[in-house]
Design a protein that fits this description.
This protein is an alpha+beta fold and 520 residues long. The chain contains 12 helices and 23 strands. It has 3 domains: 146 residues, Immunoglobulin-like (Sandwich), CATH 2.60.40; 244 residues, Alpha/Beta hydrolase fold, catalytic domain (Rossmann fold, 3-Layer(aba) Sandwich); 91 residues, no CATH class.
Amino acid sequence: MRRAISRVFAGVFIFSAAFVQQAGAESCPSQQHPSFSVSIADGLMSNPVSGRLLIMMSTENESAEKLAPSYGPDAHSVWIAAKEISNLTPQSPVTLDPDDLAYPDLFCKAPQGTYKIKAVLDVNHNFAYYYDSSDGDLTGTLAEQDFNPSSSDTISITLTERQTDPPLQLPPNTELLDFVSPTLSRFWGRPVHIRGAVVLPPSYKTGKDHYPTVYWNHGFGGDLRRIVGRYPVSLSKDMETKQSPEMIWVLLEEASPTGTHEFADSVNNGPWGKALVSELIPYLEKKYRMDARPSGRLLTGHSSGGWASLWIQVSHLNFFGGTWPTAPDPGDFRNFTGPDLTKTPLPNFYRHDDGSPDMLIRMGGKDVQSLQDLAIQERVLGDYSGQLASFEWVFSPRGKDGRPMPLFNRDTGEIDPQVAAYWHAHYDIAYLLRTHWKEIGPQINGKIHLTVGTQDTFHLDEPARLLEQTIKDLGGKADFTYLEGRTHFDLYQGGLQEKIANEMYGVARPQTRTKKQPGQ
């Protein structure tokens, strides 16, 4: 699921029947309503540009420059309208009707008032992944604008800036990883890169020791820039201060144009798991002084990266020495963020049998946003790279149009039985264990070490408990830890990272648990 939420949620949003309808399905109270005219500033681009045009407006206190969608109880504070456009130039402005495709409702139903308004041209179709603009996007803002939903005003916005990310600044003891995968390149018919960062232990350059290697996966919304900017410094500091043992950390980027590929072999994304195990890791073990044996290859990751680290272990049993997923996406599809994808007949993805909404996000012990509301918002932001679309790119069979088949109807919440059965048969980890335990059990016992909070923001403690019970019922051994009161975003407070690192080192170096580690 998503990376840490950047805004502090306040108040509580409860699902309303108004959001059962498709955005734009209900008529406006007035025949006339405002529209937006968007153009590009002269000299900003030398060629026509295309992408998804987004208009956002809010009455909240954030500046227009910082205006971005939110979710949870703040989700409805930002109104969003969208339109796919082609060949925009300074001489050819485009008109956007905010009542064609909008969230949380038609703009004609927005309260009259003064709004901060921002336009973004999402040229890479990844706004739904970041919940913000990214490198190459064009932006334009209005500091404040009076908005009358029943007027026929045309609100003009000029795209005046092109976002350009600065060069990556590598911390000490960190090297960029950029590997072109032959297998993935054949699948896509173009060069496909596996990227990341390699964090070397403090004693690496002055010694000759080999080191255990940790393969770490980020969650939804992460990318190489966020990896490099956040993690190497803390990992290096922990190793320098002896809070964690010295190991090589390979921080893998699993972001792609379709969301997160999660290093799963997929008919849509390609054979990412195969490329990792048969190409990337052998390449790294030749380049660096790594323990080139299963006990020296350890897996961890958070959220979607937690699911990836769990999946990689289960699908490559003898290649890795263990996995330490934290708050992973569902490993048991009897609770896929709520709905049971194995049930006959299948439930509605949006609603329980009694008609009540299936809630996704909770905070402070209260449910604050439904699955349906998130799906409607995601459809407006873009049908590529959002969280729900990302699951489909990993798990779904390919449709006749060449894209993954949707798990559920975005209007009604009706689940496609064919797609649900494919997900269950191919990617439901609990089902895989139950159906192949005789072969898998002896190789997986003792290798799963899962941690999740009892108040996980996305209810991910619930499928974790089902997965734990599955392993217990099979007579298997695994470590499941439930941190009382912790959510998706405060799970690591109190030293969880150091605890995991020391447990990993104990697997890789059981004979040195009481001896000095490299560099000591």
